[in-house]
């Protein structure tokens, strides 16, 4: 079989070593005679898996002691409702939530939040076709907003924040980091809530990670479903109801793999090198085009267009023949997209760059 490189935006590539370890342990985890899938979430085996995953993640992201790490379900999209349901209980009604609209995912968050509160779009780059993060000087924030929601990496538009907003300290920042968590160093203490669906940079679909500052817990609206109430979930160590056990196990294997790679700082250096390699090939001449402003370009999700879009199918077929898979862009924006998450080795990016050069006749 030719070597395959999977550029899917998500569910996405996982480290080969992790998949191999999961395969080796599939039928009999550590001599228990059980697959992790068959274990009680309350038994000592699974509890040890869970505790190690939480410990490793806390270490990788340097999560301060006053933040809870929660494993939830419902994906990133459910968070768009779970967050207002958890954060509006103590606010004077009607509450206002500030948003910065930088692309498709923050757009979905705005729509969903509008069911629970007034939303203020403090800044939007819709008119600029979502090609840069509006500079903070241009944001029109609401004094006393319940929180500010941003999507720090827009997976479809390929736009990534390169700064943390400086706002009134009493307003928590909620960040959707689904597609770049663990790809770069972050200062968790600058955020109130960080969330991420697992299927981009953590593990399989079905687990949603939430990192929540403790003082924000316990303020849910009475209509918040119990299974999504941070207080109930945190008090039960993410086992208020049955958690996505196998997904947590794989996420834990990914965290251990990240530690063996040298942690997030080392991954960030690799991600810089990988993304620079790919952008250089796209920028070499006008055969390909990435339309995002240089200082807002994502290191993880790199959309691009062929100058001559009638060659799209030929481009994709040639890529597939070389084992370069899932390069087709999101249907809402067309073109191509290469997602180069932590688990994408530089060899995969080099292979794509070689193909880009060959296809362009360079
Ligand atoms: C994928 C993604 C989501 C949605 O995740 P689901 O698990 O499909 O709900 C939300 N936000 C961002 C930034 C994403 O990349």
Q: Could you describe the 3D structure shown?
A:
This is Phosphoserine aminotransferase. Its main location: cytoplasm. Residues 4-352 form the Aminotransferase class V domain. Its EC number is 2.6.1.52. GO terms for molecular function: O-phospho-L-serine:2-oxoglutarate aminotransferase activity; pyridoxal phosphate binding. With 362 residues, this protein is an alpha/beta fold. The protein has 2 domains: 17-260, Aspartate Aminotransferase, domain 2 (3-Layer(aba) Sandwich), CATH 3.40.640; 263-360, Aspartate Aminotransferase, domain 1 (Alpha-Beta Complex), CATH 3.90.1150. Helix content is 32%, strand content 16%. It contains 9 helices and 14 strands. The chain has helices at residues 16-24, 44-61, 75-87, 104-113, 230-235, 245-260, 263-283, 312-321, 346-359; strands at residues 5-6, 67-72, 96-101, 118-124, 147-151, 153-154, 159-160, 173-176, 193-197, 208-213, 288-289, 301-306, 324-325, 336-339. The strands form 4 sheets. Strands 2-10-9-8-5-3-4 form a 7-stranded mixed β-sheet. Strands 11-12-14 form a 3-stranded antiparallel β-sheet, with helices on one face. Strands 1-13 form a two-stranded parallel ribbon. Helix 3 (75-87) crosses helix 4 (104-113). The mean pLDDT is 97. Residues 10, 75-77, 105, 151, 155, 176, 178-179, 197, 200 line the site of pyridoxal-5'-phosphate.
